[in-house]
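Sequence only, no structure available. Ideas?
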Amino acid sequence: MQKRHEIQQRSRLGTLLIHKGLITREQLDQALTMQSQTGMRLGEALISNGWISQKQLDKALRKQSRYRLVAAISAMLLGPFQPFMANANAATDDNIAVAEQTINIRSGMQELSESAMSSVTAQGAMDNYERLLDIVNSDLSSDEETAMTTLESLASSILPGTNLMDAVRAVASTRTKLVSIPHVSRNNGRRITDEESATLAAWLRERDIRFHLDGAQGPGCVPVDFRLLGCDYYSACGHKWLLGPKGTGAFFCHEDVLDRTKMSWTGSHSTLSYDQEGGYELIPEARRFEFGTRALATFAGFDAALSWMESIGMDRILKRVDELVAYAEESWQERGHTITSPIGEARSGVLVIQLTEPLTGWQVYESLRSEASTFTSPVDGPRDLRIAIHFINMRSEIDATFDAIESLL
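Reply:
I predicted one. Tokens follow.
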């Protein structure tokens, strides 16, 4: 069994090199013969004959690893598509191009009837799988970076159409100590709802796994109630949707884990009392984690920003954000384009649109920044562009941004 596995691995690497036009079938056969006679690795045999360079081998090995990683994780999370996955896996052993061709063919799906739609819970999964293939073909520097990028793509692309609990169960283990996920994804604007977060928090708490929500894109963008979310920790920055200075932020810690959370930094404002012998009593609040010396002027600015938003009314702010996003969604779709962000309860002020070929996110970002003084953000999808819509924006600004994008076509 082990020998068979090794032969399959060698065949896959060789097939990949042939597919990329780096070697011929005859050269592969000679290298395999040389390997069996000398005990050299396949790559070493190819290099010693001068057919490929070390750099080309390293790049091919990284790509081979990515195919296995993407296939494994996708098969795990896309279980309902077993016939499709079986076809793709069967093609991999013979020719990677066949697997890519299978995906391209299967992505041309027929429109579903209303009755068929009612039973579907993961619309768009094939498009998301094609995004994972983009990762395979990207120029990442290490397997670790590939794994992180793949998981990030799954979190940002597949989770909007699937169940959050299923995704976490698929990767959590007895070794997991903390689960940290974004409250609002910067890659597609998908919001973790209160109900989803509370359900996940309860499941993790039963297994003594801490739960942290990254609220960098949360407060000021979507409703935030720490008690309803049920997480152990929630962190937020002050300079994004809360309109405060950089270097400011907030941290929430559930009282049940306060004393079990180790401190890495402390200061003069972390204690209720202390003595010269080393004794001290910590403040029974999350304020114990703050530094003793801070740039107080920036926090005064943060306080002013919060006070201003509270004077307007957070409910009014969030309602306007949602109305503007709904307008932008409708406008972009009426122009004949696609929205990457989820539409409905899981949406947020982070709107991600899909650009038309040949435009890329980076290209449009640079053009809007330099030519229109408009700041957007390219994200993981090569043709995805993030547009952050806040309550201070106007519909005319949204229209002007879309006009500027379409002028680049």
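Residues 2-52 form one domain.
Hope that gets you unstuck.
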